[in-house]
UniProtKB/TrEMBL annotation:
The keyword Glycoprotein applies. This is Rano class II histocompatibility A beta chain-like protein. Keywords: Disulfide bond, Glycoprotein, Membrane, Signal, Transmembrane, Transmembrane helix. Gene3D superfamilies: Class II Histocompatibility Antigen, M Beta Chain, Chain B, domain 1, Immunoglobulins. The keyword Endoplasmic reticulum does not apply. It comes from Labeo rohita (Indian major carp). Residues 108-193 form the Ig-like domain. Residues 1-19 form the signal peptide. It comes from the Eukaryota. InterPro entries: Ig-like_dom, Ig-like_dom_sf, Ig-like_fold, Ig_C1-set, MHC/Immunoglobulin, MHC_I/II-like_Ag-recog, MHC_II_a/b_N, MHC_II_b_N.
Amino acid sequence: MQYNLMAVVLSALFETVHGHYGYVEVQCRVPDSKQHIEFIFSATYNMIEYLRYNSSESKIVGYTEFGKKLAEDYNKNNILLAQSEFVLNECKRFGEFIVPISGTTVPPDVVIQLDNVNHKPILVCSAYDFYPKHIRLTWIRDDKVIPADVTSTEEQNNGDWFYQVHSYLEYFPKPGEKISCVVEHASSNKPMIYHWDPSLPESERSKIILGAVGLSMGVFMAAGGLIYYKRKQTVSQGIRKGNEKAVPVCSAYDFYHKPIKLMWMRDDKEVTADVMSWLS
């Protein structure tokens, strides 16, 4: 694994003149081993790299005619080469700090709590301040993985080398069940299991009760409304006179859902002629 300890882009080094643009890039490349730390300096103009210095080769290489001329002059400049050695030593100094960190792992702080989202009780398993980034959170109920009703965030960078992540489970409490959040991370050689404690304070129990009641009431009202509409479905028959002609009318009122089909039958056979229908 390789770490770019410094990647400094000095885009203001060259002024933009008639659409021409140039920049230099300075890097310290720190591999897993301290023996191969590199200092690299490159210069680019109009999207073409025209020279580069690599401390592994201890010289500047030109890639264009202009770059080759500059490289020839710079390689004869002992002051410039001495400055390159100074920067390389700084890279090594920082490398001695970063290489030991590269193998470090920091275990997450895990919290399971109850939340209420859109009047639904939600269990949240949060892992904070862990390193490295990769982590896996899963929910289990009575030692079986819960595959549905689960959403998770991506690992979020805290900006201080540490990360956080959150997993959400829709919570429908059942007597005697055991719910746990399983965390898999490089800081532990086995999964870390955190159990949800149903013995909550009064305020948390109220959240669950209110959420469950609200959900039940919503289902009840929806079912009641559907029954109401079903009961209100009516079909009436009548005779309407139009242009002195008797016209049988079949009307359907107050139905739900929208798709409906009305047909006329004469002696158990569908009548297709002289039939008109419309929706209102």
